[in-house]
Amino acid sequence: MTNSIAEIEDAEVIFIIGSNTTENHPVIGTFVKRAKNKGAKIIVADPREIELAKLSDVFMQLKPGTNVALLNAMMNVIIEENLQDEEFIKERCENYDELKEVVKDYTPEKAEVITGVKADLIREAARIYAKADKACILYAMGVTQHATGTENVYSIANLAMLCGKLGKESCGVNPLRGQNNVQGACDMGGLPDVFPGYQKVHIKENVEKFEKAWGVKLSDKPGLTVSEMFHEAIKGKLKALYIMGENPVISDPDTKHVIEALEKLEFLVVQDIFLTETAQYADVVLPAASFAEKDGTFTNTERRVQRVRKAINNVGQSKADWEIIVDIMNRMGYKCSYKSARDIFDELAKVTPQYAGIDYDRIENEGIQWPCPTKDHPGTKILHKDKFARGKGLFKPTKYRTSAEQPDDEYPFILTTGRILYHYHTMTMTGKNEGLMKIAGESYVEINPMDAKKYGISDGDLVEVTSRRGSVRVKAKITDVVNEGVVFMPFHYADGSANVLTNTAYDEVTKEPELKVCAVRIKKA
Amino acid sequence: MLKIKINGSEFEVKKGLTILEACKEVGVEVPTFCHDDRLKPSGTCRICVVEVEGARNLMAACSTPVTDGMVIWTESKKVVDARKEILNLILANHPLDCLTCEKSGECKLQDLCYKYGIKGSTFKPNKKEYDVDESNEFYYSDPNKCILCGKCVRVCNELQCTGAIGFAQRGIKTHVTTPFDKGIANSTCVSCGNCVAVCPVGALMPKKKMKYRTWEVKKVRTTCSYCGVGCQLYLLVKDDKVVGVEPYFGEPNRGLLCVKGRFAYNFINHKDRLKTPLIKKNGKFEEATWEEAYDYIVGRLTEIKEKYGPDSIAGLTSARCTNEENYIMQKFMRAVIGTNNIDHCARL
Amino acid sequence: MITLTINGKKIRVASGTTILGAAQKLGIDIPTLCYDPMLEVYGGCRICVVEVEGAKSLMAACATQVQEGMVVYTESEKVIKARKEILALLLANHPNDCLTCEKAGVCKLQEYAYRYDVKFGQIDGERHNYELEDSNPYIVRDMNKCILCGKCVRTCAQVEGRKVLTFAYRGFKTKVTTAFDKPYEDSDCAFCFRCVAVCPVGALKDKRASGKARHWEVSKEEFTCTFCDYGCKFEVARKHGKAVYVTPKAPSEGRPLCLKGKIGNELKYLDDVETPYIRVEGKLEPVSWAKALGLEEILYKIETEKR
C-alpha cells in the first residue's frame, strides 16, 4: 500500500477493484464501511456482486479479465472532460502524451462492449473519482491474477497519477496483500531476481554488497519463479526443491501439472506444521513450529513491521523454520551463529535499506512502517509524498488484451476463483476448526439463475465443472452474485479444488498465474 | 489550555476534552460501563458520574466537556452514593453467578461491586428469564447477564458495520437481540466477535473448547497469522496451550478482529500437528530423528549440487513465515546452495 | 514396591503410598479440600473420592493406601457424580458471595465448582447465620463460609502448647471454635496466621489484605522471612507495581510462622504500612514498631551510645 489502513476511513471516495475486501481483509472492510457511513462514496468494480457492491454508489460488474479496458475508459472520460490534475502531471510525471494517445481509443461505449459495464456507469465512476480530493484505490488479486496483471496495475497507477491521487493523505494505490507476511517475504528477497530490499541480483554493486555481507561468492543470474520451477522440474532440469511452509498442490494453478513436477523431482523437502497435500510428495518432511511458538516479525500490507511473540513451547519436536534452516546451513559448511530471531533481524536490517532503522526495541509497542532508513526515522505512512522512488512518475499506458483463455462453444463459461470469509488459503489452518467447517464445510460453484435454468441445475445439485485441464464435482449455489456466463469457485478446498481447473498462463513480468479467468463447461452430475 | 481542579489538585488540560478524557490524561480513574474510546459517548450507564461544583446534578464524565475553572470531584460521597445505587439497581436483575461465571475476574460489574463494597442488591430481585442464544458457533449471548450498556450494539453497527444486533422492546423488557429474535445464527452476523470483546460483563462470551478461569491465562501479544492486515492480538495461554484470542486495542486494527483471527486458533495445538521429522522409505513415511533427517537432506543436496550444479536446486520460501525466516531461507539458497532459485506464492 | 493402574496408566510406588500420592506422581490432579501434606490425614471432606475396581464404594484417595494390581479411576462418571453432590451440598450452606469475596480466585470451593460445573441453589437447605468475627486487627473469621475441613484445627495443634482451635457442637451445628467459643483475641491465639494460610475457602482471612486487591489483580512474589532462622515463606502482592499486602504461605516442616514475621515483613515490604498490634498484658494494643518488633531495648542502647 502506498498509504495506510487508517487513512481509508477518512477518504471521500474509495474505488475498490478486484478486491472482495469484507471477506478477504475483513478488518479493512470495516474501515471502508465506516468511511461510507461518514459519507464517502464507494465505487466497486468486480465480476461479482460482493457485499461492498451492495452498498456502493457505483457498481461496475465487469466481465472477468477486462480491467484495462475499464480503467482506460475511465481515464478517457477524465481527459475528455478535463478532470485531470494538470499541475501534478506537469510537475511530477512524464510520458503523459503517450497515455493520452492510448486512452483516446477507449471511449466508454467501446469499453461497454468489452467489459459489459454500461458506458454511463463508467463515466459516473470516473467523475466521482477524479473530482474528490481524497480518493484511494484498493485492489487485490482480482487485478493481479491475470496474464495481464502487470498491465492492470500500470493502469491503476496511471489513473491515480492522472488525477494526482498519490503521495497524499487518504489517497494512493493500495494493494491489499492476501497473506500475513507476503509483504515481508518480498521485502526479504524471497524472489528470484532481487536480494533483500528489492536490490536486483543482476546489478554488480548489489552482488558485491551481499558477497561482502555474507562472505561468499554469489550468483548474478536471476533464478526461477514458482511456475518456472514446476516447468523446469517436468523438463528434468530442476532436480531438488526445498519447500518451507507452502502448499502448491492446492494453491497453484493446474494441480495435475504441479503434482507431475513434484513427482519428477529427485529430491523434495517439505517443512510445514501439518502433513499437507504437498508434503505427501516429499522425501523428507520436517515439523515446523507455528507462529504461536516463535519470535519474529511480520510485515503487513501497509508495510508495518510488527512483532510475533512466542506464547507456548514448541509442539512435539517441532522447530522454528529459521532454526531448521540455520541447522542445515551449518551442516553444509556455512557457519552461522544466530541465537535468536532478534539476531537475524539485526543482520537483515543492516542489508535492507528500508528496514535499517528498525529494531525489536523500537517496535515493542507499535510496529513501524518502512521505509525507515535510520534509528531516529519515524517510519513512512505515505509513499511518494514529494517525489516518486524513481524521480518522475512514469505513465505506462497499456492496451487491452484478452485473457489467455476465452469461452467458446466447448467451454462456454468463464470461471473465476477467490477466497471466502470463513476459510484461509489452502485450509491447513481453518480446515481444523469445527465451527468454520460447520458454516463452510464444502466447495461449491456459484451459477447465475438464468444459466442454471438453461442447464436444469437447482440449488444444491452436484455439478461437474470441467476445463481443458481437469474436472471436479461440487455443489451448485444458484445466485445472481455472478452474471450470466460467469461462474465462481472458492479455491480453498482440496475436495472439489478450483485449481484442478485453472490455467497456468501467466503474466510475462510477474509470472503471476491467471487464476481469475479460465474457460469451463458445467453440467449436472 | 484550560485550568481545572480534579479531586483538589490543579491541572492544565487541552480544550475540547470530556471530563473522562481529562481525568484519564492526569491519571485519575473514573469507572465506565458504556464508554468506548472509539465510539461517540452515549452516557447511558451513568456509572461515570462525577460531582462538578456549581452544577445542580451529577454529570456523566464521558459526555460532559471540561470548561475553564471547572472543579471536579470523582469520588465524593455524593458520587460514591450514586454509583452504589446504580450497582445496587443493576444487581437487582443480575444473576449472582461469579462462582462459575466465565467472565469472573475480568467483569467490570464485579470490579466495581468490590471497589464500592456492594455485596448484593437491597432491591426486590427481578431476575430476567431469557434463553441463552447458543446458535452461533463461536460465542453465546446470555441476555440475563446483560446490563444494557449497548456497547455491543454500537460496535456491531458503528465499527464493524454489520448491523446484526440491536435493542428490542422497552423498559424492563429491553434486551439486545437480532431482528425478530431469530437468533444470532439466523442474522447477518459474521462471527467477528467484536461485540464479545467489548462486553463488560458475562453476557457475550466466547465458547470455550478448554475450560479456564480468566486469572489462569497468560496473555501474549502477537500478530495475527491469517491475512495481510496484520491485526494485533493476544494469545491466551493455559498449560502451554493456546485456549483463546482477544484483540489488542491499537494500530492497525483498533480492537477489531475477524472470525478467523478471533476464533480459528485451534490449529495451533491440533492433534494432527507434525511432531517429528519424517523420511519416506519405500513409499511410506517413517519417523526419524532430527539428526537422521539433517544428514539425509545435507547428503542429498550436496550430491545434487555437485552432480548438476547449484541451479538444479530451488527453494520456496513462505508468505506465512516471519521476515527472519524468509531472510534466512533466501540466504540459504543464495549463499549456501549458490542459486537465485528462490520464490514464494506472493502471486496466489 | 506396588504396581497399580490409574486412569489406564501403570505406575510403581512404594507400599504405604496413598492413591492420592500415586496419582500426583502421574501428574493426575485429584481435588482435595481437607488434605494437606503437612497435616495428619483426616479424610473428612470426601471430595477426593475415586473409583477402585472391585471396591463396594468410592474410596477417599487421601486416606486409602495403594494395593498390588489396584485399578483406579479418578474422573469416572460415578466419581464425578459424587463430587458434584458433595459440592452442591457444600454450596447449599455457603454464602453466594464470590462477587466480592476476598478469597475469590484462589478459593478451592470455587475452583472445584467451576471444574465440575456446580452452581449455588442446586440443593436448598438450612443455612448458618453466624455473626462475622471482625473484632481483632488481624484475622477476619466468617464461619458461614467454613466447610469444616478442619485444616485450621490440625495446623494449630501442631504448635507445641497452642491448640487454640477445636471442633465444637454436633451435626449441622458443628463449628470450629476457640475454648468457650470466644473471639480470637480473647483466646490464647498468638496470631501466627497458620490457620489463615491453610484455609481453602474464605472463612479465615488476613484482615490487613482485605479490600486491597482481587487475587487476579496482583502479582505475587514469594520470599523467605529473615527475622529468625526458621526461614518461613511469605509472599508480597503487588497491584500495578505497588506492594499492597504481605501474607504468610502455608507453614511447613520446621517453619512455624509467627506474628512478628508477618508484621515485620509488612514494614519491610509495603508502601503504606498499617499500625502494628501486639498483646500487651493479654490485650491486643496498637504499639510502636520498635515495641512490636521487640527492638525498644536495642534502640535505647543505640541512642545512649550516640550521646
UniProtKB/TrEMBL annotation, chain A:
Q: What cofactor does this one take?
A: [4Fe-4S] cluster; Mo-bis(molybdopterin guanine dinucleotide)
- Highest taxon, organism lineage: Bacteria
Q: Which residues form the Molybdopterin oxidoreductase domain?
A: 1-330
The alphabetized UniProt keywords are: 4Fe-4S, Iron, Iron-sulfur, Metal-binding, Molybdenum, Oxidoreductase
Query: Lipoprotein as a keyword?
Result: no
Q: Which Gene3D superfamilies match?
A: 2.40.40.20, 3.40.50.740, Dimethylsulfoxide Reductase, domain 2
A Gene Ontology biological process term: respiratory electron transport chain
- Name a Pfam family for this protein: Molybdopterin
- Molybdopterin dinucleotide-binding domain sequence ranges: 413-519
InterPro entries, A to Z: Asp_de-COase-like_dom_sf, CT_Formate-Dh_H, Formate_Dh-H_N, Formate_DH_asu, MoPterin_dinucl-bd_dom, Mopterin_OxRdtase, Mopterin_OxRdtase_prok_CS, Prok_molybdopt-oxidoreductase
Q: Please give the GO cellular component terms listed in this UniProt entry.
A: membrane
A molecular function (GO) held by this record is:
formate dehydrogenase (NAD+) activity
**Family per record:** In the C-terminal section; belongs to the prokaryotic molybdopterin-containing oxidoreductase family.
Q: What is this protein called?
A: Formate dehydrogenase, alpha subunit
The species this protein was found in? Caloramator fervidus
UniProtKB/TrEMBL annotation, chain B:
Name all 4Fe-4S ferredoxin-type domain ranges.
Answer: 137-170, 180-209
Q: Name one GO biological process term.
A: respiratory electron transport chain
Matching Pfam families: Fer2_4, Fer4_Nqo3, Molybdop_Fe4S4, Molybdopterin, NADH-G_4Fe-4S_3
Keyword presence, Methyltransferase: no
Keywords, ordered alphabetically: 2Fe-2S, 4Fe-4S, Iron, Iron-sulfur, Membrane, Metal-binding, NAD, Oxidoreductase, Repeat, Translocase
Task: List, separated by semicolons, the cofactors it needs.
Answer: [2Fe-2S] cluster; [4Fe-4S] cluster
Name all 4Fe-4S His(Cys)3-ligated-type domain ranges.
78-117
- Single annotated GO MF: NADH dehydrogenase activity
Residues of the 4Fe-4S Mo/W bis-MGD-type domain: 217-272
The protein's matches in PANTHER family, at most eight in alphabetical order, are given as:
FORMATE DEHYDROGENASE H, RESPIRATORY NITRATE REDUCTASE
Give the protein name, as stated in the record: 4Fe-4S dicluster domain-containing protein
Automatic annotation (TrEMBL), chain C:
**Signal peptide span per the entry?**
none
Q: Which GO terms describe its cellular component?
A: membrane
Domain of life the protein comes from: Bacteria
Q: Per its Swiss-Prot or TrEMBL entry, what cofactor is needed?
A: [4Fe-4S] cluster
Q: Which residues form the 2Fe-2S ferredoxin-type domain?
A: 1-78
Using the record's annotation, list all stretches that form the 4Fe-4S His(Cys)3-ligated-type domain. Answer: 78-117
Kindly state a single biological-process term from the GO annotations of this entry: ATP synthesis coupled electron transport
Molecular function via GO = 2 iron, 2 sulfur cluster binding; 4 iron, 4 sulfur cluster binding; metal ion binding; NADH dehydrogenase (ubiquinone) activity; NADH dehydrogenase activity
Q: What keyword terms does UniProt attach to this protein?
A: 2Fe-2S, 4Fe-4S, Iron, Iron-sulfur, Metal-binding, Oxidoreductase, Repeat
The residue ranges of the 4Fe-4S ferredoxin-type domain are 137-167, 181-209
Its protein name is Molybdopterin oxidoreductase Fe4S4 domain-containing protein
Name its species: Caloramator fervidus
